[in-house]
């Protein structure tokens, strides 16, 4: 079994990526492809893998609140969307032959375990993939913040942020600025100073304070998840100060 640069990671998956080209909902073929890549990685290495998946393919709490819905209600709906994505990913991973557990911050005992830190760590030690659903169980917090906090709690070495529409961190939006410059490496201090839109500031501060490295990369290129786990130079690496 091959050894990797990291012992334990949190993989942050974009919810939108699970929709594939259709742009909305859950595309089973896309989920299956991601699951096969993650399962192959889990089977061939000693890496311990936890996953946080967004819910933007089904519902965005902020978008709902912008349309007049109560923000807390909209955010709770977003948490339920992440649980639906988590169950879809769990099913695909299990079919790919990997033991998987879903833990949710909101108790749903018929379909998932409640989040318990020590239990999550024990699952990881047994080489089970753990998927964290329902965010932090509280409104006003993003799944980016969920990934940062869970990474700190389970003592992960890094967060691998797999994006659908970005291949790294730029000094400005490459969609509107053709001269935008991509960073290969950057510190959290510079991310905060330059107000770069990598993740929300709560998540960035959590990563910075807990010395957790972050790799932002394009998840739609085959093999990129494995390359990120190897510590290869893809996307942008944000230093946690180690």
List the helices and strands and how they pair.
Layout: E1 8-13, H1 28-44, E2 48-53, H2 61-66, H3 71-95, E3 100-104, E4 113-114, H4 117-125, E5 129-133, H5 143-153, E6 158-163, E7 169-170, E8 182-183, E9 185-187, H6 188-193, H7 201-209, E10 213-218, H8 224-230, E11 236-239
Describe this protein's structure:
The structure is a single chain. Helices cover 37% and strands 19% of the residues. It has 242 residues and is α/β, with parallel strands linked by helices. The chain has a nine-stranded mixed beta sheet, with helices on both faces. A two-stranded antiparallel sheet has the order 7-8. Strand 1 (8-13), helix 1 and strand 2 (48-53) form a beta-alpha-beta unit. Helix 1 crosses helix 3 and helix 5 (143-153) runs parallel beside helix 7. The chain is globular, with a radius of gyration of 17 Å.
């Amino acid at each position: 079994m091959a050894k990797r640069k990291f012992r334990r990671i949190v993989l942050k998956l974009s919810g939108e990526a699970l929709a594939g080209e259709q742009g909305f909902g859950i595309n089973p073929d896309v989920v299956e492809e991601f699951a096969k890549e993650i399962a192959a990685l889990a089977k061939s290495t000693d890496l311990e893998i936890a996953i946080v998946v967004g819910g933007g393919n089904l519902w965005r709490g902020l978008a709902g609140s912008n349309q007049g819905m109560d923000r807390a209600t909209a955010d709770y709906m977003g948490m339920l969307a992440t649980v639906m994505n988590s169950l879809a990913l769990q099913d695909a991973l299990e079919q790919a032959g990997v033991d998987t557990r879903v833990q949710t911050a909101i108790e749903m005992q018929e379909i998932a375990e409640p989040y318990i830190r020590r239990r999550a760590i024990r699952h990881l030690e047994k080489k089970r993939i753990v998927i964290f659903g329902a965010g932090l169980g509280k409104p006003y917090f993003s799944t980016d913040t969920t990934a940062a906090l869970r990474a700190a709690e389970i003592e992960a070495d890094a967060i691998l942020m797999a994006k659908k529409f970005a291949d790294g961190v730029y000094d400005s939006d490459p969609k509107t600025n053709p001269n935008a410059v991509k960073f290969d490496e950057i510190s959290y201090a510079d991310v905060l100073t330059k107000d770069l839109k990598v993740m929300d500031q709560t998540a960035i501060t959590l990563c910075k304070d807990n010395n957790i490295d972050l790799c932002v990369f394009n998840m739609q290129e085959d093999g990129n998840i494995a390359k990120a786990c190897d510590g290869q130079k893809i996307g942008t690496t944000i230093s946690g100060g180690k």
